[in-house]
Amino acid sequence: MSMITIREVSAYVGQEVTIGVWMYNKRSSGKIQFLQLRDGTGTIQGVLVRNQVAPEIWDEAKLLTMESSLYVTGMIRQDDRAPSGFELDVTSVKTIQVAEEYPIAKKEHGTDFLMDHRHLWIRSARQAAILRVRAEIIRAIQMFLDQKGFTLVDPPILTPSSCEGTTNLFHTKYFDEDAYLSQSGQLYAEAAAMALNKVYSFGPTFRAEKSKTRRHLIEFWMIEPEMAFVDHEGNLEYQEQMLEFVAQSVLQNCQTELQTLERDISKLEKIKAPFPRITYDEAIELLHREGFDDIQWGEDFGAPHETKIAESFDKPVFITHYPTEIKSFYMKPDPKRPEVVLCADLIAPEGYGEIIGGSQRIDDPELLAERYEEHSLSKEAYAWYLDLRKYGTVPHSGFGLGLERTVAWICGLDHVRETIPFPRMLNRLYP
């Protein structure tokens, strides 16, 4: 007899198997018990017929409560009426534990209650589907970058200074020095690109911003590619190709999960390169036409502005050439128009806002030194970064993709708190 997972049942039709499962739900007609079973790889209905099993097996199954754990044995049967296409004719159950009364019952719970019980909430079909889509997005991104010749590098999480030049950092002591939790691996990835050509980092980043919006987390994951000998135009092409690859991979490999989430896949099917592009100037004009007179040239866009811009397109849209003054110190000015930089934010459709930010980086050592002065950056703390421009500087570009915002968009979620197993938000550090 084989010990298998629910994901594998299609290969065992007509065979008796054993599966380690949890009881997701149960109903009975008196003569038949219908056991809704899950094992983390999928769900299946077990059918237990009273007059076909020993009385003790029937009685043991009757004692099982929601989230009880057990080994179930039975014959795999194909059934086109079943959601998974298969059912299990149960011949035996072996209880591991009869669970206590489960806190998350089949009734409405408030968000705070569910977040307090996040360690249990992730067992639900919807939350498990989101986490599987998240895993597929990660797998697809890494596959795309690997196929394009990128090398994975691991920047430090503890850093002596800020990447963005902001004060919104988590401070800690590093023995007798000050240190901060990383808000980006970009600067270190740039150093690695000078050694390895095309690289990417993938890891947690931290922002000590007291934000409560549906798009923000305190701890989140970033994918940050950096590429030597790649200009602004090449940078945009990598971004749109990668996002197309991700969307199509999810459509191909997560059909069950997307159905569980009731996601309108027609919107994802449109995610094909190339993506539309508008300049910051054009975006300002669009907003003014739509009645957003409050936004002036030189100001950054907020969530309502990004949403309005995105409504004009059915694909993600690049907004390029932002004003130099509102962007980070390392972004390269447009040689034809120095008051704007060679950068782009990629805005997702359906109101999900910016999911990628990127730019061509400054490669001129003198200009970068000037930026240090303008942004009051410590020359000692950033000396190593300037070295990259002194010893074989080249045109280079990169971008950062926020994983949780991307998951929220692909899954069609209202809030990023559901996109990560255990979210860290302004007022939440538990569980």
Automatic annotation (TrEMBL):
It holds the Pfam family tRNA_anti-codon. CDD domains: AsnRS_cyto_like_N (cd04323), AsxRS_core (cd00776). It catalyses: tRNA(Asn) + L-asparagine + ATP = L-asparaginyl-tRNA(Asn) + AMP + diphosphate + H(+). Transmembrane segments: none annotated. SUPFAM superfamilies: Class II aaRS and biotin synthetases, Nucleic acid-binding proteins. PROSITE patterns: AA_TRNA_LIGASE_II (PS50862). InterPro entries: Aa-tRNA-synt_II (IPR004364), aa-tRNA-synth_II (IPR006195), aa-tRNA-synth_II/BPL/LPL (IPR045864), Asn-tRNA-ligase (IPR004522), Asp/Asn-tRNA-synth_IIb (IPR002312), NA-bd_OB-fold (IPR012340), NA-bd_OB_tRNA (IPR004365). It comes from the Bacteria. Keywords: Aminoacyl-tRNA synthetase, ATP-binding, Cytoplasm, Ligase, Nucleotide-binding, Protein biosynthesis. One of its GO terms (biological process) is asparaginyl-tRNA aminoacylation. Its EC number is 6.1.1.22. Homodimer. This is Asparagine--tRNA ligase. It comes from Baia soyae.
